[in-house]
Design a protein that fits this description.
The protein has eight helices and seven strands, in the order E-H-E-H-E-H-E-H-E-H-E-H-H-H-E. It is α/β, with parallel strands linked by helices and about 260 residues long.
Length: about 260
Amino acid sequence: MDLGLRGKRAIVCASSKGLGLGCAEALAEAGVDLVMNARGAEVLESEAARLRDTYGVAVTTVACDLTTPEGQAQVLDAAGAVDILVNNNGGPPPGIWSDWDRDDFIKALDANMLTPIALMKAVLPGMMDRRWGRVVNITSVSVKAPIATLGLSNSARAGLTGYVGGTSRQVAPYGVTINNLLPGLHDTDRIKTTDAAVSKQTGQSLDQVRAEREASIPVGRMGTPQEFGQACAFLCSQHAGFIVGQNILLDGGVTNATL
């Protein structure tokens, strides 16, 4: 399928690995020029070079902390006029309700709510002027089914979801769509780190921990960054202009909900 994106320009946040890289690669395959961001420059540059060589697109890299105004300014200055924004950031640490104080919540809000909102506010006016734009926010299944140990993430991402619900309807008349992708268990470095922690805590082997995780997923496996990226690319495509303000689960059927 031709996604109709060749020659478009995209910012993809936190895109040196994992789901962000999956999105960047799928967009590059569709002919989109990229501005890729991550905190670490070495891996970011390596993946950017691979995408340039493989897909023949222009890729600009910006190594910075996007949760700071300075980092946001760096990415926006490097990007210029963009057609697509993919918001992504690592989640806050797990714990229980009694672990977190005000500072913890402020950090979570900065990373997973206020930063994507700031980037949207920066790019939406230009998209509206050009009468075309796509924003995809990578959030979490916890938006639909809160995870007890991820209270910081539950709170910040739910706030972003509420913001998108209202804003998406205001910009839709201008040909601009905003939607959220909600990942479940995907085979990324974050899952590997979590599995290692569970293995150490329980005494189970890594293979046992992974097998139990996969058994909990109706499709019987974890998702891949590549298939997640393709879903993101479709939401950015010319075919997705009638999808507005939606929260789309990519969890292999884990979230047992009718709506």
